[in-house]
Fold this protein.
Amino acid sequence: MDELFEPTVNKKDVSNFSNERNVNKSILIPLAEKMRPENLEEIVGQEHLLGKGKILRNEIENDNYSSLILWGPPGTGKTTIARIIAKNTNSLFIEISAVLHGLKELRIALSDAKKLKKSGTRCILFIDEIHRFNKAQQDALLPSVEDGTIVLIGATTENPSFEIISPLLSRSQVFILKQLEEEDIVGVLKRALIDRTRGLGEWNFEVEDKFFYSIANFSNGDARASLNILELVSNFVLYESNPKKEKKVVMKLTVDQILEIIQQKTLLHDKSGDEHYNLISAFHKTLRSSNPDAALYWLGRMIEAGEDPMYILRRLVRFASEDVGMADPNALHIVISAQRAFEFIGLPEGKLAIAQATIYLAQAPKSDSVYRAYLNVQDAIQKYPLKPVPFHLRNAPTEFLKEIGFGEGYQHAHSSVSSFVEMEGLPEEINFLTFYHPTHRGFEEEVKNRMNIKKNILTDSQKEELQSKNIVSEFDHRSSDPAMPLKKRKK
């Protein structure tokens, strides 16, 4: 029966077929994988970890590891470092991917590691994308890390303090890989173009000025992405300019080809990971520091990468109250108007309404007095006993409630010439507290002046004058309910 499924191949052609299949396999391997560094010297941009005398390099060269986490952006060498460790260690090296494998495969790997430990063999377990493992899966690793059954190496693009359980993190060294600089990327590309064994060196490519730098600009410090772009462009030129694949034909690689193939830069952003919070943090902080250009840039980075504009608008509403506040009360109206405008016209035109609100907030005077005032209120609620509402502030809709004192002593502000009244508004036990402390910035200077006037306006002589003119007695005191109408005092 097996013969029914065997390919039809002449006996004399078997060896040729085998060789051709091996060549085809090589063609299918991406350039980025072919050019993956094979030793520490080929890794670029991580001298702070792999330079002479650095801790991680010493551990690799001495084959002496404790558990470690490699944290960094995509294409910076995390998996490459792990595989170089695999090549240089005398320990058994097991590699699994948190994307492809689950708890079942993890338990099998840990079981194998326990058997090896009994025979005196150390096991290094490398988990790529370890942040994809949930808490239960990470918990399963902990006993084996604690008793030395495995040395764990985890690679992650996400902040380990958020994505890796604390017990596991506390038992591991964390090494932070840096995003590659432009010159690092250019070096990777040049090496790939001239390498005759693993790269494109067998072809006669000529490179236009700034070709490599253009790819570096598109790849955002990601070596793998840069090599993928180079491979796309070179394949395009190869099939367009040299369909017969003649080795001596000169083929020109240009910036225009990159722009034609790539069209748009891939922006590093995710809606729930580190970069999401990094970008919104940069946006918020540049708004606060009154830098409209920087705030607009981070706004653009978020929107063009696909961030939800309504999320950004919600943050702007918060900023208008928290960081501008009473220094410019109009800021809140501007942001709400931007939100309504965006809902009305949507993308892409709605971006401009958000940009306008961003510029307004960045240039507005800043005050966090509203934010601090509410923090003071929260603190007072927790610190002091919760006393009942004073009687003079209570509504008295019935005669009975009036008879027992509800509303007695309430002073209606509109009955005063100045519209200010001297009346306690807090329970007696905390009437010494002041929650709101205005600054001198923007409109809040006017607010501060009004508060000072209120404090000083009701001098004793003014009080006597108001009483002598019987101004206050002309109307009943208004109820604490603002919806209730004023009534003429009964004679």
